[in-house]
Amino acid sequence: MFKDLDPILHAQLRLAVMSLLIGVKEAEFTFLKEKSKASAGNLSIQLNKLKEAGYIEINKQFRNNYPLTLCKITRKGVEAFEAYVLALQSYTQNPES
Amino acid sequence: MHDKELSHEESLKLISSMIGQAKDAYHDTGRGAMLWGIVIAICSIVKFTEIHFNYRLPFDIFLLTIVAIIPQIIISAKEQRNRNRSVKTYDEVFLKYIWIGFGIAIFLLIFINNAVFQSWQPVAKEYRELTGNAPVFQFSEFVPAYFLLLYGLPTFITGTACHFKPMLWGGIFCWVCCLITLYSNTETDMLLTALSALVAWFFPGLLMKREYQKSKRKESADV
């Protein structure tokens, strides 16, 4: 019996963001934009979806008079990501079932 | 990158690629390691020449380590400012606290040594007055061993945590020298301390700097 894949994570950009954040303490918006090669607008929308799901925290502040957006994965986000990877593994290990 | 749905294989590929990219986000410039390697080596070699050629500087050469805190602060501030890829990795945070803890431990060790010297001096004086001979036990002969023991610890942890073998071996080298200094005279101890500082910090720092420059060039080429 396969588990359903989390629809929040099963999208290219949101999965890329979560995969980047899972290995770091926190990352700036610019880092996520550079690594995911996404447009700023699309990235903002997807980050908000992840935030609404409680998977990430977004902290907006200022540095040298410039706005700074810091993103951090939450405990709920880590658990969801782990569950998503386990579900994916079960699909790839038993592709015919 | 868009918000498209992925196949299972694509998802796994994407996860592994992004995790790999985040892992490569932190590269130490190696400047701090080079600075401390050269400072400790200079202090130890000067101390060696003081003992070997029987002269005394008007100040303790190891006070240079306190002066070296200033360039270290400048290096750290500059590195913080120049970081254009703004991400904080767990390794980076963990190592920062390991080295801050090491710095605190070194200064505590200096205070402990001074306290032991002050307690030991009256005993040694009394022994000299009673027997006419210098005491056989000289605490100062064991001091380099304590320092080398401490030098090895954060170096070894950094080497293992970052999979950076030159530092891992540098840490082990410090501990081997620590054992040797228990059986050698103070002159040799100073040379071993200088050698440890070069092997554990200066040369790995050079390699780190080269890796850092390589990653910077790669970054510029990608842009």
Tell me, what's the shape of chain A?
elongated
What characterizes the major β-sheet of chain A? 3 strands, antiparallel
**Total DSSP E strands of chain A:** 3
Helical coverage of chain A, percent range: 40-55%
Radius of gyration of chain B, in Å, reads 23 Å
Radius of gyration of chain A: 15 Å
Give the fraction of residues assigned to helices of chain B: over 70%
Percentage of β-strand residues of chain A: 15-25%
Oligomer: heterodimer
> How many separate domains of chain A?
1
Provide the low-confidence segments of chain A as ranges.
none
Which pair has the most extensive contact? Answer: A-B, 32 and 28 residues
Shape of chain B: elongated
* Distance N to C terminus of chain B: 16 Å
Features:
heterodimer; A: alpha+beta; 4 helices; 3 strands; elongated; B: 223 residues; mainly alpha
Please provide a written account of the structure.
The complex is a heterodimer of chains A (97) and B (223). Helices cover 53% and strands 22% of the residues of chain A. By secondary structure, chain A is an alpha+beta fold. Chain A has a three-stranded antiparallel beta sheet. Chain A is elongated and about 55 Å long. With 223 residues, chain B is mostly helical. The model of chain B has no long low-confidence stretch (mean pLDDT 89). Classes of the chains: A alpha+beta (97), B mainly alpha (223). Strand 1 of chain A pairs antiparallel with strand 1 of chain B.
